[in-house]
Design goal:
This protein is of the alpha/beta class and 280 residues long. It has one domain: Purple Acid Phosphatase, chain A, domain 2 (4-Layer Sandwich), CATH 3.60.21. The chain contains seven helices and 14 strands. The strands form three sheets. A seven-stranded mixed sheet has the order 4-5-6-7-9-8-11, with helices on one face. A five-stranded mixed sheet has the order 3-2-1-12-13, with no helix packed on it. The chain has a two-stranded parallel ribbon with strand order 10-14. The protein is globular and about 50 Å long. One fe (ii) ion binds next to loops.
C-alpha cells in the first residue's frame, strides 16, 4: 500500500501581482494528471497574505480549483514572520485570524497507512498565540503513534546543519522554537521533516531525521543575492509513503515552468540587490 502525496511550496499568489500564476497553473495541470492522493503546500501560499486579504483569497481559490484534496500550511508571507526574526511583518493575532478565516486551520494531523503526517505553523512555534493548540496537537500526535512513522511538514527548515546551531536568520527556525518542538515531540523521532521557504531543493540528514526542502513553484533567487544551500530550481516533490514505513521521493520538474528570478521582480518584494549579497 502506497500513498502518493505531492508537496508543492511557495506559490506566492496574488490577483494584482500575478507574476507567478502561470507557473502555478502549469504545476496544477501536472498535479491533476499525476494521480496523487493528496497535495500539501508548505507555505507562502500568497504573495502578501500577511497584509492582503485578496492575496489569501486568491491562494484559496487557486487551490480549490485544483479539485484535489489539499492540506495547506502558512508561510511568513501568509501570517507574518516569527517574532524571533521578523523584520517588518511580525506574526500576530490579527494576521492569524485572517489566515484561519480565509484558508482554514494553520495546523493539522493526517493519518495515512503506516504514517502520521503532522502539519505545523512554523511562524508561531514557541509563541503563546493560540492558547496552546499547536503544543497540544504536537504532544498528542507524537504520544499516540502506535507504531506509525512520523513525518512533520512546516514552512521553514528546522536547521541548516545541526539542531544546536545558534544561527539567528529568518531563513531557518531559530534555536528556541526548535528546542520547543523537540521537547513536545518527546521520544518520537520524525523519520521525515519536510519544508519549503528557501526556494531551493535539498535532501539532508540532521539529528537522525531526513530533511527534505521542496523547491518553490514560483521563483528562485539567483547568486549572489541568496546563498546556495541546495539546488536552485522551480518544481515540486512527489512523495511515496509506504505502509511499512519506507518512503521515497522524486523531484519533479514540469515542462514549461519558467525559472523566474526574484531579482527581476522588484514589484514583488522590493529591490533584492539593494539588500546586499546573501541577504535575499
Ligand atoms: Fe517563499
Ligand atoms: Fe517563506
Amino acid at each position: 500500500m502506497i500513498t502518493r502525496i505531492a508537496q508543492i511550496s511557495d506559490t506566492h499568489l496574488s490577483p494584482t501581482k500575478s507574476f507567478f500564476r502561470s507557473n502555478f497553473d502549469l504545476v496544477a495541470e501536472h498535479l491533476r494528471r499525476a494521480g496523487h492522493d493528496h497535495v500539501i503546500n508548505t507555505g507562502d501560499l500568497a504573495l502578501d497574505g500577511a497584509d492582503s486579504e485578496a492575496d489569501l483569497a486568491e491562494a484559496r481559490a487557486a487551490h480549490e480549483a485544483l479539485g484535489l484534496e489539499c492540506h495547506l500550511l502558512p508561510g511568513n508571507h501568509d501570517v507574518g514572520d516569527h517574532l524571533d526574526v521578523a523584520r517588518r511583518q511580525p506574526v500576530n493575532a490579527e494576521r492569524l485570524e485572517r489566515y484561519r478565516r480565509i484558508i482554514g486551520s494553520d495546523i493539522w494531523s493526517l493519518d495515512i497507512p503506516g504514517w502520521r503526517l503532522l502539519g505545523l505553523n512554523a511562524l508561531t512555534l514557541g509563541l503563546d498565540l493560540d492558547d496552546g493548540r499547536q503544543d497540544d496537537l504536537i504532544r498528542n500526535a507524537s504520544a499516540s503513534l502506535a507504531g506509525r512513522s512520523l513525518a512533520v511538514f512546516l514552512h521553514k527548515p528546522l536547521a541548516d546543519t545541526a539542531y544546536d546551531e545558534a544561527l539567528s536568520s529568518n531563513r531557518f527556525m531559530t534555536h528556541g522554537p526548535r528546542q520547543h518542538l523537540m521537547a513536545l515531540l518527546g521520544g518520537a523521532q520524525p523519520a521525515l521533516i519536510c519544508c519549503g521557504h528557501v526556494h531551493q531543493y535539498r535532501d539532508s540528514l540532521i539529528g537522525g531525521s531526513r530533511h527534505l526542502w521542496a523547491p518553490a513553484a514560483s521563483f528562485m533567487i539567483s547568486d549572489p543575492w541568496q546563498p546556495g544551500y541546495g539546488a536552485k530550481m522551480v518544481g515540486y516533490l512527489a512523495h511515496e509513503f509506504h505502509a511499512d514505513g519506507r518512503h521515497r521521493h522524486d523531484v519533479i520538474g514540469v515542462r514549461g515552468l519558467v525559472h523566474h528570478d526574484l531579482v527581476s521582480f522588484p514589484e514583488a518584494y522590493g529591490d533584492v540587490t539593494a539588500w546586499g549579497p546573501g541577504n535575499a
